[in-house]
Structure formats: structure tokens, C-alpha cells
Amino acid sequence: MSSVYSEPSPAAPTSRHTLAVIVDNEPGVLARIAGLFSGRGYNIESLTVSETEHEKHLSRITIVTTGTEAEIEQIKAQLARLVPVHRVRDLSDEGPAIERELVLLKVVGQGDQRVEALRLAQAFGARTLDATLSSFIFEFTGALEDVERFIGIMADCGLVEVSRTGVAAMSRGAEAM
Amino acid sequence: MSKTKSETVSETANETMSGAEMVVRALQDQGVEHLFGYPGGAVLPIYDALFHQDTVRHILVRHEQAAVHAAEGYARSSGKVGCVLVTSGPGATNAVTGLTDALMDSIPVVCITGQVPTQLIGSDAFQEADTVGITRHCTKHNYLVKRIEDLPRVLHEAFYVASHGRPGPVVIDIPKDIQFAKGAYARPTDNQHKTYRPVVSGDIERIRAAVALMASAKRPIFYTGGGVINSGPEAARLLRELVRLTGFPITSTLMGLGAYPASDQQFLGMLGMHGTYEANHAMHDCDVMINIGARFDDRITGRIDAFSPGSRKIHIDIDPSSINKNVKADIGIVGDCAHVLEDMLRLWKGLPQDVEKPSLKGWWGKIAGWRARNCLAYRPSDTVIKPQYALERLQALTEGRDTYITTEVGQHQMWAAQFLKFDEPNRWMTSGGLGTMGYGLPAAIGAQIAHPEALVIDVAGEASILMNMQEMSTALQHRLPIKVFILNNEYMGMVRQWQELLHGGRYSESYSHSLPDFVKLAEAYGGVGIRCDNPADLDAAILEMIDTPRPVIFDCIVDKMENCFPMIPSGKAHNEMILGDAAEDIGAIIDEKGKALV
Ligand SMILES: Cc1ncc(C[n+]2csc(CCOP(=O)(O)OP(=O)(O)O)c2C)c(N)n1
Ligand SMILES: [Mg+2]
């Protein structure tokens, strides 16, 4: 509860937003951002970080979060007031952004199950990065729904391990952030 | 080509020195005259560098929490950045409450902490604490300096960040090897941070819309806060001019007292949980609210969905995250109060003369009705000192003097806000956001350091004062004639009041047991103790306190069971507040849901 007086507010509709945040790549910046979300009780569905401009030591953090309109506005304002944050952009504001995620799946099995796993992976356009007589590692890149679908299908084909990168996202069109 | 400023600076700046010397030099270059601190192993090189100079005066406190509160009191009473120096580990963790307090109340503080040598970081070394980790959420920003090349920039940047935009505390954690390392010092430049540039001037179109809305208001009110004080004396001056020109009523938060003169007719007193009847009712019934530098804190709004239901709200704040956080603003203006007020004033003066503004007669008439309730009235007594009476006398006997007031936290704090009259900004220092018992005494020390000739009084409770009592020793050492005015009700009064109103009068652990003899305690520290328990003797005793040029503890024995009213009970709206003479009915007023709230 944000205020000691607030009654649980009538459930306002929530929506999913993808935020791109450009930050100084200095020690502790990720802790600052993650801590902001935990400290203020916001959701993080996915968080992706990497230095994107080495000379300027700038990193791009992509955050997928859900909240009411007011919460999303607060999240953006709170992010923007952190000293090492340069820019915050709500990629979901400007129509659906391009969002991709990469996933690695380890699938273990023999016989028909193994053949079926490979066939399905090929149908999804996944790449095979490693193969043994009893296992595969597949790499799949796609929109979130496709990643989920692929993982769901592999779950029935001997899936034993999943590693996901989190979302990388960019707004459409010529304009840069 | 003519030389740019930074080139000239860098020519004179390539002096080589140790990290510890850089710290002291940077403080000097930032104009720091006073530093509140406590030594220890991890800051010895800095203390050594301090030893060799006398521009920066070090004030030795007795607990690191007090160092930060003293720096806050110094900052709030002077408008400068408060500076703190503490050692690693326990020095830093002791400072955490002070830092959190400064963050909540937006007070500019730079706190330098020592750290174990870089090669020992992470090894659980002696007096190692993850200071940047611990203070990340109780500072505006913090730094761990791992390279001597970064140190001069970080030192200057810290002052810039602490004092620009919404002010706040900044920690610089400096490992001991960096303090010994030699490097090139650089002086401060104009651009103290590569990207942090808070917006100071408000969007002029929004200000225009705000002025138009104000001009059409039938029941307007100004609701101002600590942001006006933080913005500086010019903001307070502009606010006064605007309020006078518009003829609107004005109320203030606890943090904003003094920005507008309390003695002025247009001032309705403080608003909020223990605010005046007239201020809260005016807030509830207004049609246009102009919030300048306040943040719709829950102590102000009461029940949020019943908060000022019929008004359109203008909100001016330097922190964009404050706008629409708790209460939706119809016109949000991001900017520094002084800048925005200047524009508002110009536009207000430029309004076409022929446009008829609604008359405020009816509105002021309504306000007069609320005022007539005389909400701060209390039952006087000639046998026991009423806390309200004590403060009325303190107010009367300090009138016309150069006075600064700090407080601890509890009933006495709220009574001080209600009964002391602040006509100037920077005269009133209290822990608002965090509500830190133990704030007032060290804050008074800071204020007295900034204003050696002034009368500095900590209005205290007998429970709170014990939280940083050790600072009496600091006051004695530095010859600071602060006055600790204890409203001694032998209870954690505010806790007792809630227990009386909400928990069936079961006074669980709220009695101030085994209190020291405050007069003897004052004397033990080398100060002066005065006790008064008789209303007839009070004036003379207060005058004796004022006239004593040494630290004084005044043990004012007051009514034990007095409650602080008006009060907006938990879970209630502004127009459901209760007054002193209605106290017996209060059980019926607060419902079950209200009891769960703090
Ligand atoms: C550090 C800290 N601990 C606990 C509290 C909770 N608290 C608020 S007021 C209060 C009682 C203060 O008693 P006293 O100083 O005697 O003031 P009074 O209310 O009696 O005027 C307490 C315990 C607090 N605000 N700060
Ligand atoms: Mg008390």
C-alpha cells in the first residue's frame, strides 16, 4: 500500500509496457534500477541490460513491466529522476514496438521423441547448437508469444533446461531514441 | 581563440596531492566552512589533512546519526549544503537514519564515508560495510570511488547533485588507499554533472493556464510546502507578493512553515492531520488548489479518495515524480518554485484589467466561520502547565528575537507547529517525512553553528530527547548555547494519544519510565538545568533560559494526559476532523478500518 490512508484502490485496468532506459554504465546502476522496482513495489517481468555505446559508457536497459496507467507514469518518472539515467522511453506508447527474445533449450530424449523434437524445432525455425545421441540444444529467437509457444511445445518433448535473455526492444520507424 | 573557462581552470588545477588532501581542498573550493563528523580508522588520512588547515572547521559530534541531523539543521537554517564525515562500517551505518531523514525532507547533505582499502572490499574486513549498497535507497545518489583520478570530479559532482533539482543527501564512499593515493586535483567547473540537469523553469503555457484557472476561481487556496523553502528566500518573497495580490487564502505543510508569515491574516495555519480546522475545511471545499512545492503526503490528504473532491488542482514541483503520484493534478508544472512563481506573478499582473474576477467575499466569509471555531483552544489551568500554554509563552517571550526552532517528534512537535509563529523561512527545522525522534537536539547544534548569535531552541519531548542526548556534550565542547525545551509529559505522548483513542486506553509501553533528572543531567554535561512545574513561574523560568548564555535543558513539567487536537482520525476526510472539546466522542468517530492505519 503506497499510502497509509489508501484503501485498496478499485482495480484500474493494467497494461504491459516495454521501457527503454539509457543509463551511464557505472557500478551499481543496475542495482539502483532493480532496487527502485522492489522498493516501490512495481513489477518487473523482464529486464535486459548491456552496454550499447562503449566509448560513452552507456548501457541500454529494457524493462517489461505491468501496471495501471498511473503506475506506469510513476515508474517512468521515478526512473528518470535517478542521477545516472539519461533517457526513459516508453516503447509501448508509440504503437507496438519490435520485441525479440532469445532462448536456449536443452531437450533430452531418445527414439521417436528425439526425432519429433528436432522436427518441431525445425518447423519453428530454431537452430541446433549442440547435439548428442540423447540431447539437443536449440536456439530460438522470436516475439515473446512465439518463445512461449516454442517452450510449451518442447515441454512435451523432453525439455530439461531453459535459458532466456529477456526482451530486446526498439520502436518502429526512422526515429532513434 | 580566447580561452574557455575550463581551460583556465585546468591550468591552475594540475596540482598533485593525496586523496585525503583532495577531499579537504574540494570542501574549501565548495565554500564549506563547517563539517560535522566523527573519526575512525578508515578516515584517518582525511582527519590528518583537516589538521593542517583552518578554513574548514570540524564539529566533533558524539554519534554519527547526530552528525547528519546537525548537517541538516545547518543546511535548513542557512540554505547551504550540510557536510558530514564519518568512518567506515559502524560510522556509516550509524549515519543511515540521518541520511534517510534528509532524503525524505529533501535536505542537501554531502556525507563522506571512509571505506576499507579497495583490495579488502568484499572480504568482510574489519569495519567493512557495503556502504553504497546500504545507502542506495536512502540517498539521492551515492558513489564508491575506486580510482584517484575520479575523486576530484566525484567530490564536486556530489555538491552539485545534492543541491540541484530536488535536494537530497549524497554519499561518497572513499577507500583508505584512495585517500593515500596521489593524483591531480581539479577545481570545480560550471558543469558539475555530464547529464543531470533538472528543469527549473516551468512550461510557460501551463503557467498561463494555471493563472487563467486562478483568475476564475471562486474558492481558491494556496497549499505550499518545503519546496518553497528549498527554492530559497526569493521564492518566499515572490510567494508573499502573489498571495497578497491575489487575495487568496494560504495554508502550509509542516515543512513549509515560515515561507508565508504566520501572523498574516491570509494565513490559515498548517493543514493536515493536526492542522487547523479552517485550513483543512478550506482545502476540502476549495474549487482551485494551487500546490506549490508540497507533495500530497498522506498526513496532508487524509483519506485520499475524499481529498478535496470538488477542486481543480495546480501542482508545481521540481520533481516530476511528485506530480500525479498521490493526487492527480489538472495542471502539473515541473520547475523550481521561484522560477514558476516569478512567471505566475508576471502573468497575474498582466491579466486584462476589464476581466471581472469572481469576488472572494463569500469564500472568506465561510473561512471566517471555520476560524470562529477557534480550533486550537484548550482548557487553561492554573495548577498544571498545559503544553499549549508553555508554547504560547515561549512564543510570546521570544517574539522579536532572532530565533530558530527545531523539534523532536511527537505531540510537542505538532503543538510547536500549531502555537509557534514563523514569519520567515529557514527558522523552523523539524523531521517531517521520516518523523525521527532524536532529530531536534543535533539539528539545533547545526543551526547554532550556522547562526552563532541566534537563539536556538529545540522543542523536545522527554522520550525523544533521550535518543540523542549525548549531543549535549557536543554543545558544551563547541560552546553552543542551545536551549532544549522539554515538554515533559512522562509519556511518549503521541503514542499514548493513539492508544487512548484507538486501543482502549491500554498504554502498552508508552510510559516514560525511569526518566533521568534532567536538571542534574544538564549539570552533569556542564550545562544549565531549569525545572518548572507551575504556570505562575513559567514566564520567569523561560526568561532565565533565554538569558543564559550557555546550553540549557529546560524540564517543563506539563499535563500528562493532554491530547493534540485538531486531529483528522485515520481513514477520515478533512471535513471529518475532530476538535479538542469533542474528544470524548472520538471512539465513535473512528471506525475499525481506521484503526489499522498508522
Ligand atoms: C526513532 C523513532 N522511534 C519511534 C517513533 C514513534 N514515535 C512517534 S512519537 C513517539 C513518542 C514521542 O514521545 P515524546 O518525545 O515524549 O513526545 P510527546 O509525544 O510526549 O510530546 C514515538 C515513540 C519515532 N517517531 N521515531
Ligand atoms: Mg512525552
TrEMBL record, chain A:
GO biological process, one term: L-valine biosynthetic process
Catalytic activity of the protein: 2 pyruvate + H(+) = (2S)-2-acetolactate + CO2
Keyword Transferase among UniProt keywords: yes
Family statement: Belongs to the acetolactate synthase small subunit family.
NCBIfam families named among the record's database cross-references: acolac_sm, PRK11895.1
Role played: Catalyzes the conversion of 2 pyruvate molecules into acetolactate in the first common step of the biosynthetic pathway of the branched-amino acids such as leucine, isoleucine, and valine.
The protein's name: Acetolactate synthase small subunit
Organism: Chelatococcus asaccharovorans
From TrEMBL, chain B:
Lineage start: Bacteria, Pseudomonadati, Pseudomonadota, Alphaproteobacteria, Hyphomicrobiales
Top-level taxon of the source organism: Bacteria
Top-rank EC class of the record's enzyme: transferase
Assigned EC number: 2.2.1.6
Name of the protein in question: Acetolactate synthase
Similarity field: Belongs to the TPP enzyme family.
Catalytic activity: 2 pyruvate + H(+) = (2S)-2-acetolactate + CO2
Domain Thiamine pyrophosphate enzyme TPP-binding: 409-556
InterPro entries xref list: Acetolactate_synth_lsu, AHAS_TPP, DHS-like_NAD/FAD-binding_dom, THDP-binding, Thiamin_PyroP_enz_cen_dom, Thiamin_PyroP_enz_TPP-bd_dom, TPP_enz, TPP_enzyme_TPP-bd
Cofactor note text: Binds 1 thiamine pyrophosphate per subunit. Binds 1 Mg(2+) ion per subunit.
NCBIfam families registered for this protein in UniProt: acolac_lg, PRK09107.1
